[in-house]
Amino acid sequence: MTARNTTASVTLAILIAVSAVTVRAAGFLETLDITAGTPSPLPGHVIARLVPIRWDDRALPVRYLMNSTLSPIPNPLPPGTPVLTLADAQAALQASLDVWNAIPTSYIRMQLTGPVANAGVTGFDFKNELTFRTAATFAAIASSPSVSLIADSSLDNGDDIDGDGDSDVSSAITSATDVDSDGDTEFPAGFYKAGTILDNDVQFNTKTTNGFRFTIGDAAVDTVTRSVDLMAVAVHEFGHSIGLSHTLDNQISATDGTGTSMYPFIDTGDPASELAQRDLGSDDIAWASYHYPEGSQATGWGALQPGDVAFGNVYGLIRGEIRHGVLNQPIAGASVAAFDWDTGTFVSAGFSGTTQLSFNPATGALPPPTSAAFNILDGRYTIPVLKGSYAVRVEATDGTPAAAGNISLTASVGAFLGQQNFDEDFFNNNGEETNEVRPGQKKNVVVKAGKVTSGVDVTTNRNLNINNFDTLNAFGFIDLPGGGYYAVRIPAAQVTALLASVPASSKLSLHSLQFQTLVADSSVVPVFARAVLATGSASGATATINLATPLAEASGFVAQDTDFSPFYVADGKALAKIVQEGIADGSITDLFLVLQLGTAPFPGVSGIPPLVGLDTVGPFRGLSYLSVDGVTFTQVPTRDFRFSLGWSELP
After folding, report:
1. Between 2.60.40.10, 3.30.750.24, 3.30.413.10, 3.50.30.40, what CATH number should domain 310-459 receive?
2. What is the reported pTM?
3. What whole-number distance in Å separates Cα of residue 297 and Cα of residue 12?
4. What is the largest CA-CA distance in the chain?
5. pLDDT tens-place string over residues 409-464
């Protein structure tokens, strides 16, 4: 991160920052805004608000140059024979740009305009470069770093912003272009807001040490994990190029296991997953349209042209605030998602919070957060959605399915301050408080085109979960046969201890069973035959579970990929009473959380059954069991399954 003054008469006249793809906010990539110059509590520092990055309309269409010095495109896999010509790659990259250009409700435009001969790696040079050259230390599949302003700035004719001795600003133009024909782009002189993108490069890793073989065409997509579809990767990276962030959304519906293009990971061993990421999801389209809305201007890029659709004619906004029920703080970086009310299909999501940091303009230092009171201004969020009816759910950015560091500085602020530690919770507008009887209860949120549906506020719950596990460090088991069972024992003594931890006057709700689950193939939905809460008993290394008359059961249980999957029981108060009375009279000695696999063969290219989260480090509790027949359950002494029994105090 660097800072530079160019005009002595204006403090912080032009400040720039490299916005790496890990710096993201609610739908957008973030950068700092230090325009106000307000001193922070740290000596020598100023307060830096986090703001979205975007292209100024004067920079459209965004012009990209293709690095021509690697031709054909290297193949790092044996035998090393190239599979792509430079022309092949260029065509695939332009097609990837056109995926974003074709959104009828967004006016963003990007295009490939010619070659550039760069024998080195990318850098800040006012050339938007597409390249298959990466630094020796580069380890990702690809990345899309941008350089953006971190203060409102006046760019004056002749300014040399990148320090190469050549002017980067011209008063002779009204849109960005190579006015002096020297290969780089000049910006029109004028005023630009903090967050304005000045330069964006997209790099694809083909190094022999850790690079990938990039392919094009359906027939070339395979299960080799270091081989990946170029267009699937490029569409994702060009989303970052226009300022969009990652999301947590890796499972569209109960029947579609694919995710949005902007999910931070790609399953390179699952052809169906790769192919799906070539196409934009509803979330990708919504945020590109919100960032660059068609019909928002009378003239210029935002004015309607043939084939365009005005953003406000079809989209509305959901707005609210997320608060941490235990900490009593606005949450930074909670994921808030909207699902179609009728089908349960994921539609769009954003992240909560307006945040600020301390920044040292002299050194570029950005110290860690100090307190929620200083760093988190509010827990507000916005979700753009098509007109319709929605259920709204809040989820912690806690590492499953993605960590705060994969999302944004805002999310990282919340994580650093200990906020990403709550269970999923739906907005229900009825009992939205710390102690909630039914966190899975949903309220129909109706959105009209061109309107804001506000007040969709959620306070996360103070859950009293019984967890017989520690850290997630593995998933298993790939060889459990169809119809097999996972089970975790909850001894009655644990429930008794939970009851003793709350005031005697309190009553409890046993509202959910939670199972951490995963699929080997990202295009597959993890579906289990049953999720069950049952009674039973253990003797030595075996257990007997009463599956015939369970306390709660969900058939055809649709779980979540790389996340905790809640089964919300219908009447948590009644179930808690049954359990407490059974323990008191001795009829219940142990509870069991049980997941049963469906029948084989399992869907997906690997044919592997859905998996469960494991703690493989210990110390182990000896409360996890496997069974192939549902009759005899055998203890797994060196693994703890990550199953949780969710309780809360009644309000």
Report:
1. 2.60.40.10
2. 0.94
3. 31
4. 88
5. 999 999 999 999 999 999 998 656 667 778 889 999 999 999 999 999 999 998 89
